[in-house]
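Illustration 12: Vitellogenin domain-containing protein.
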Amino acid sequence: MWGFLLCHLVALAEPGLNPKKTYEYRYEGMVNIGRGMPNLAESGVRLVCKVKIIGVSAQTFLLRVSNLNFEEFNGIPGKNAFDTSPKLTKRIAAELSKPFMFEYAKGRVGDIRTSAEISDTIVNIVRGILGFFQVTVKTTQRVYELEEFGIHGLCQSTYANEEDANSQELSVTQIVDINNCKKKAAIYRGMALAVDNKLSKERGDSVISTVRYVYTVKPTVDGGLIKKAHALERQHFSPFNVKGGNSKLQLVLLSVTDTVVTPAVGPMISRGNLVYKFVKVLAQIPILMKKLDDPVPKIADMIKRLAQANIYQTDSATSEDVVVLFQLLRVTSLENHEVLWKQLSGNDEHRRWLLDTIVEVADARVLKFLKNRFKAGDVSANEAGQTLLIAFNHVAAETDLMEMEFLSMPFSKSHPMLWNTVVLSYGSLVYRYCTYEYGQSCPVAVVQPLLDLVIDGLKRNNELDMVLALKAIGNAGHPSSIKTIRRFLPGVSATPVTLPARVLSAAVQSLRHLAVRDPHSVQDITVSLFVQRHLPTEIRMLACMILFETKPPLALVSTVTAFLLEEADMHVASFSYSLIGSIAKSSTPDNHFLSTACNVAVKILAPKFGRVSYHYSKAMHLDWFNDDFLIGTATEIFMLKNAASFIPTEIVTKGKFHFIGKILQLVELGFRADGIKELFRQNIQVFNGHLSYADFEAIFKVLQDWKTLPGDKPLLSAYTRIFGQEFFFADLNNDLIQSVIKTVSPSAGKESPVWSMIENLQNGMSWHWTKPFLMFETRYIQATSLGLPVEISKYYNTLTTITVNAKAAISPPLTDRLGQLLTSDVSLVTDGFAGFSKDQFVFHGINTAIFQCGAELKSKTVVAIPWEFSMKMNVKQKTFEIDLPACKEETKLFSVKFDVYAVSRNIEEPSRAKMTPMMPDSVEANKDIEPPEQRYLTSGQKLCAEANIYGAVFCVEFEATRSHYIDEYPLYYFLGYTNFACTIQPVQSNKPVDKIHIEMNASPTKYTVSVRHLLDTLDGSIRTFVPSCTPPQAWNGNSEPVFTIKVLAMSGNTKPEGYEAAAFYTPAAQMDNTQLIVSQIGEEANWKLCTDANVDKVRQEQLKMHLRWGAECQSYEMSMKTATAHLPGSRPTLKAKIHWKTVPGLCRALFTTVLAIEKYIPGMAFLLGFYQKHATNAKHEVSASVVAATGGSIATTIKVPDVGNTLALVINLLFIHSIISKTHFIKHYNGL
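Figure caption equivalent — predicted structure in token form:
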């Protein structure tokens, strides 16, 4: 009996609807995007309507919406209000008023059906309404957890029930953890090349979202009746702990009546269940709202307009329109693309704009368009390579993209660089495809063409084909490729392998992505390679490098450590030890456990390898990470050598960026020197590795024999990877070098391409290049309880323009060889422009096809470098002249401007679009609502350096407004207006300036500045400055200057004004003396700068310099001196000293600024290993000494007067702290 009663009570409370009744509810859904703090602008939308649910059958119900009102908000909460949008209300109501059928039983919403013409946006809004009816009520438990489907996907829900004894109603609270969803209604696009890292994610995720539903349920004979409900969804940017947005929903039961007549409905189709559906959502770019009907004429017109606007220089006002062009192209069909090609390909400018922008269609359509171009052959190899490279790396990888046809098309092989681009880009496409679609279970068919290519190259023993295919396989990172890669690795392959070192290197490096995707398999392979001592040294070091990319556990690191203790190859030992030691100091989350293991290994290996010479192979890893912002960077440099040569076999440098649980590999550069290494191994006779004059002589002699190498053997190879994907590699071989030398040789005649270039210059040449490029587009979109998609997107678009106009004259003209240029007068007149406009957008908010609201950061960076000048030169006479026009108008060379806005847009009423600065324009107007914990910081400054003589002034302008909250400062610091600009402006001068004349003359001199002298001077000057008060050497006024430079302002027939610099070189038996004299030219001008430097030939370890400037070089004076010492029985020592007598007011102002931050330096010094004590030091003197304390450390002593503290110490902290063993810092308190 009790069991029956309990079941009956459960049935009464379990949500249900009576198929014979009609339920009417009032529904309100609201979302606002902002920071949730007073006095900051926000945006939002609100939807209010009545909802009728009519029973059709036992488990089928009809939903109809009426009395709809759609409102938008844009402004400051408490000051502004929601505004109704009549046209958008009408459009939404037209669809929402159509009938929707859904299945419902026991608190579960099933299949949703409606007519085919209803948009996905409207269906998702209905899902938000029906989400209130998806609830599980258990009267037998007060608190319970369930995994159930909802609008956010299959997520974890926590319930809590409470019964009201008076009303007999249940209060049900449901908390949905949106971050804990197995099948989350969310998509991530644009970050396929960023590696997810579990340890990094544990420190914090990009978005944290939770939803709380509260229901009032009344038990009835038909089941639990939901009388009212409300929901609150919150989003947080976790790294800053800053609120990002709220969604609020409310449902109130108005009436329950008997159904008289069930309304008739037309044909319906299934639209899926309650889970939010993403359909064509990526087509709508969130930072703009444009009507996209009839796109072809709009695209053609926009391309023509943009091409014309940027025909000479970058028009920064139009750069944002490029994003509009991308949006239009994304709604066109393949047939539209062909129409556009026929219309625009006949004009070079329009053709280039179409090819550069159509790649951002970013799906199968653009690849089919490119296939048509390849088949027709109506693009050049250069155009095809550029377009295909970007298209393959920007396309959203889908099943129908992996057609592989590009690899078999004849046009793809028409040019070697195009073929390389096709193969490498296909590998990148496979990587993206597997990341998005399959993960670890990616089908082998997509990578099979690359596996076939490499096996074919192996069978034909074609080194270049094997290297290219292995590089593409490395780009793909497909788990099924490991079996094929093994065939190229000795000791790992089932059959013996004898392959060139370059192929082996490519095979090992092809495991780099698999180190993350299949670390255990890669560990087995790399350890096997590492322990084979008969293998080439380079291959073993590369294996070690890849091994540590897999983040090996402590046991494996211990195995490597034990093996290294017995290692005889010092290059392998040095490389491995330096890599382990660098990782031991790592602070990034991905190395959290590995750095601990490496710390243990370092302690074991240090006694044997702690003082290995720098001549051996090295690896270096430097990184930092900030736990508050969850960002960090890492830099790695690898130098691989072997015992056969001092020339590195391979040099690799790479950078990584850590951000919010992801790791993005930025730029990686690699160089191989097989040919150069072979050349030096065969021919070098004397080389001690000290980079002395004798070493340089030996190197130059060897390089003269480069022709002895085979024509097809590369002297140098290089590659570039961006975001972990290799997109370029090239070889510099004997044939290429000879071709270049032959082309530019003085004996080259009219057959040389340089000859035709010179002819074009004489006839007048004009060249123009414009490149629009979407550098990145990243989008994260997830469902909200309201049925609207919330999105976090980042866009970075660039528009680059280069224009060159030039005309040359040669007298006497060339007749038969290029060498005649060296004895001719050459003049050139040119003008042009080089610059770019970079637009960056960050959007957080609601983005649909019909309306948008959110927070948007807009940033624009502009660089503009125009030029116009004439030039004359004569190589034989060593004369060079340039004439520049006077500055007539303001030119903005560089500018950065950004602000954050609350934005609202809707497709029906474009004129209602609003962009309100998140910080109000007037702080004073809002004092009444400003909280005490908030403060505004507004600053502006303009600094100018005038050159009155030349009629120009260079200015730097900075303006910023910031809002700080004490408890949430990190993100809020970026909210506000910022403007920074560098400009050149005309300024009133004493005389009107017609032009600026620059003249350089390297007159013949009886003293020849030889290469040997240059090397000796360099060797003396790099040792560091140590001051001296000795008087300068007197220079001979009758001696010829080595060179002179004049920069003069020309003004009609009056005497020019400006500056002249002359350098003198006077050798002597024991000391070489060099002087530099800078003089002002003009009436009554007496300012001069005199510099005297000398190197002691007997004691080359000593360098002295004396500096005087002012009226006739008499106003101010400073001297410097450096010296090194390494006496028998003493440690190598470097000493430096700077001494001054008088300094100008500008220097004193700088010293005052330094004093303002001086108090922070002792703390920095202590943290970095310095200590401080007080001692006596010269009043106007800074001195330092560096002593080689041990083989791996130095001891530094710095003595400064009070004002010199910061400058001297910071220099040493930046460049010396990483190797300091013991350092002390001595400070003097006598001031200037």
